[in-house]
Amino acid sequence: MERLQKFHHCTVMKLFLIIAFIFPASSLAVVLNAPTTTTIRMSIVGGCEFSNAPVQNSTAMIGTMNFGSVYHAGGPVEANSAPGQGSIQFRCTPGVTARVTMNAGLYSATVNNRRMRHTNTTNYLSYQLYTTANRNVIWDATTGRSLAFSNDTLQTMTVYGRLPPQSGVLPGTYTDTVTVTITW
Prior knowledge:
Layout: H1 2-22, H2 25-32, E1 48-50, E2 55-56, E3 59-60, E4 77-80, E5 88-92, E6 97-102, E7 115-118, E8 124-126, E9 128-130, E10 145-148, E11 155-157, E12 160-163, E13 174-175, E14 180-183
Antiparallel strand pairs: 1-5, 2-3, 4-12, 5-11, 6-10, 6-14, 7-8, 7-13, 9-12
């Protein structure tokens, strides 16, 4: 009986060594461990960003809308923005509705009386910015223009400008800076 017990222990030991050789300890640990779970998470928040606008002093620069050169301001002068030249290019998270507004500029108290200033004097040139090509809706700091995004493709908003007829305008370059704000 003692011999049979020794045989039994030797057989069990050989079987254990064969199993250990075939399945190294690292794989045994994985096989013997109970399955566990982990949670994977990410939040997508609604947002918008200007596209390809160089940043200067933490402000995106969308370019200069140019009315061109005229020898007098006796008749209306119109201009349309273009990408990199005053057009507003941006993208938003799908499902977001963005509102784009513009302030009165540096030299006017209200959007109804925007003015550019002569670079060397204190003379001004009146102008206006519009949301529509027929120039009947002023681009203001409250209502502005809204756009709903169904995907995240780049959208371009054209700015329509007009200088009304003016007299006594001195020759030179006139400029203004308008702040464009996107809210969502």
